[in-house]
Amino acid sequence: MRSKVLHSFPVRASATLLLSVVAAWAFDLLRLPLPWILGPLVAVGGASMMGAPTASWTPLRNAGQLTIGAALGLYFTPAVAAVVASLWWIVGLSILWAFALGMVFGYWLYRVNKDRMPGLTRASAFYAGAIGGASEMTLLAERSHANARTDLVAAAHSLRMVMVAVLVPFAFTFSGLHGVDLTPAGPRITHLSGLALLLGLGVGCAWLLGWMGRSNPWFMGSLLVATGLTLAEIHLSAIPTWLSNAAQLTMGASMGVRFTAGFVHTAPRWLGTVMVGTLAMIVLCAAFGWALAWASGLPAATMILATAPGGIAEMAITAKVLQLGAAVVTTCHVCRLVAVLTLIGPLFRKLGIA
Prior knowledge:
Layout: H1 2-6, H2 9-29, H3 35-49, H4 58-73, H5 78-85, H6 88-113, H7 122-129, H8 134-143, H9 150-175, H10 192-211, H11 217-231, H12 241-256, H13 268-296, H14 300-306, H15 312-322, H16 326-351
Helix pairs in contact: 2-3, 2-12, 3-12, 4-11, 4-12, 4-15, 6-7, 6-13, 6-16, 7-8, 7-9, 8-9, 9-13, 10-11, 13-14, 14-16, 15-16
């Protein structure tokens, strides 16, 4: 009876949350980068892989995405929007780069693993290599009806996103590479009634996007609402720091629970090649971002982060916390995600991959 209580979902979720808080405080005390998201991610991920019964409560994760989406939307003042709009060519090039890099990565994964993994299909490698979200690419692979192994696709994206989320902030922090945040947030004062209305409208938009079957509804819905209000110069409230930190904590914990004990045993060779390929992509994207910075005159740190092969929320949080041009980084990653989700299926069919 006692064992059942200890392994019940509320107990596991509460223990995971407590571990996340302790890890965030420890990272903050050690002055490590992005303590409120990386601390929980590293601690919970490590505990999960060692077999600890970790758990993440979905409503908390959704609330975290809602909060981060609103915080990022507040950067898009009319002046900032004009600057971002003038960078349309950078957004376009970053999308083309993401498609090209993803296809090369997928092709390389297939060539390296096909002889030692007889069940590996080109479709599995194609969707595993595409630079998109883990859940979205896994779902598209399942819908492709091409015998894609969704476990390999999900594992590849989870590992890639976590590696980028951990390595990139550390690289920025310890390399001494800095940028200038050209996009300061709009409102700076918190009003409880305005904050409640801002988040409430975000919930409504998230529900609508979810009903329409859109990707990342809680993040995107809140981002759209906050961006629209800020562009209209309607400033309801700023997002308090403690709430932003709490949101990062829930998101870090939700990423960490993906790495179960069974994850380590999921085709070790496959995970090894994904790790090597991800490191190569980080280096190549950094070089591409540096080239864009040279061509545009923008800070190299901003462009490197805007083209990094990571998840939209994690890279946007990094830009926000490190003050590296959050609006530019968010725009590049949002447009890239939309383009990949819209075009990757038709591209798969056009290429006739099986």
